[in-house]
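COMPLEX REQUEST
Ligand: fe (ii) ion
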Amino acid sequence: MRQQDLGFDWPQASSLAGPAPAVEPERVVAPVTYVPGYLNPAQQAALYEEAKGYPLSSPDIRVYGQRYKIPRSQAWFGDDGCDYLFSSHLVKALPWPKYANKLRHKLMRELGLRLNGVLVNCYADGSETVGWHSDDETEIAPHSTIASVSLGATRDFVIRHKQTQQKMSFALAAGDLLLMHWPMQQEWEHALPKRLKVTEPRLNFTFRHLLVDFHAGG
Ligand SMILES: O=C(O)CCC(=O)C(=O)O
Ligand SMILES: [Fe+2]
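STATUS: Structure written out below.
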């Protein structure tokens, strides 16, 4: 049967050809909330001063059988029963310092979160980093939110979707808060890349909700 026999003219293939319609790849919405300037300068100063007395250390990690010091220093504070196994070290929770605890209670009160530990990271300058990872340890309470507060130098915090590799970057400045909601750790990774022009230290506090006594008795 010829086309005309159907009673109307079919477009020819050549007239269908043209520029492909511009279809944007679907963007995934990252489950984060960015709150610039969450801490005022006086609050930042009190916490920064306090942190000068924290017992920060750089534990070893093993990569393919080799030992390396992590390229930053850290301390873990938390409630009793909130020991934390990360980078294959079981770290005992140190008692809460005054201002870190005040900030924890401010976050809990204002955001309706439950938080029982904080990992403090110190990056002495832009050569210190954290590589791609998710905060998906099994002792982190399912569906909980991680609250990250930054002090000192501004650094880029980059997130990357595990499947699509879609990336977003946040220039986290002193006093900024970034909330990572469920399922951020399941679906995305994050990193703090090197920024060699940065010469000042940065501190970051990630407040977490751990399952209490997860590592007890074992
Ligand atoms: O320093 C930061 O902003 C991120 C720290 C981090 O990812 C972590 O402690 O798990
Ligand atoms: Fe992290």
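REMARKS: The longest strand covers residues 117-123. The chain is about 15% helix and 35% strand.
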